[in-house]
Amino acid sequence: MKIEEGKVVTLEFKVYDKNNGELLEDTQDVGPFFYIHGFGNFVPAIEEALEGKEKGYTTTIELTPEEGYGEYDEDLIVDMEKSEFVEFDDIYEGLDFIADMDDGSEQSFIITKIEDEIITADGNHPFAGKDLRFEVTVSDVRDATEEEIEHGHPHFHGFED
C-alpha cells in the first residue's frame, strides 16, 4: 500500500543534530511514530519525501530549521507566576503543557526552570533552530478509519503490527 493522503503511516526513526551528530530522538526508546498522511501533523518536508512510498522504505532526510521546526525564537521563553499553575498536580522541570495565547491560539511549552515563585517555560520545539538528519523507516501503511479521518489523528485500539 502506497503512502498517500488519508493513510496511517507508522515510522521508526532516529533524529540527529546534523552539525554535531548528537542523537536527539530514537523511536526505539519512545515507540513508533504514527500520523495520518496529508493532514499536516508531521514535518511537511518528510511527508513530501514519503509520498508514494511503501512499507519497508528507508531513507535519510536532511532538514534546515526552516524545513523542520523553525528558527529558535527567544520571544517564546516566558516567565510565569507559580500561582498560574494551581490546576497542576505536580510542577517540575521538563513538564510540557498547553497555554492559551492572547491571540486565541494555543502554544505548547516546556518548563525549563523553577525558582521560588517564578517558572520559566520555553515554547520552542526542542529541535527548533537545528539542522536535522532523520533516518526513517516506514514500518506500516494502512487506511485510516472514518473516525480517525474525522478526528485528524490515528487511534490505537484494534491496531495490529
From TrEMBL:
Segments forming domain PPIase FKBP-type: 6-96
GO CC annotation: cytoplasm
Entries under Gene3D superfamilies matching the protein: 3.10.50.40
Coiled-coil features, chain-numbered ranges: none
GO biological process terms held by the UniProt record: protein refolding
A single GO molecular function term of this UniProt record: peptidyl-prolyl cis-trans isomerase activity
Domain of life: Bacteria
Reaction catalysis annotation: [protein]-peptidylproline (omega=180) = [protein]-peptidylproline (omega=0)
Family: Belongs to the FKBP-type PPIase family.
Family annotation (PANTHER family): FKBP-TYPE PEPTIDYL-PROLYL CIS-TRANS ISOMERASE SLYD
Function in brief: Also involved in hydrogenase metallocenter assembly, probably by participating in the nickel insertion step. This function in hydrogenase biosynthesis requires chaperone activity and the presence of the metal-binding domain, but not PPIase activity.
Protein name: Peptidyl-prolyl cis-trans isomerase
Species: Cetobacterium somerae ATCC BAA-474
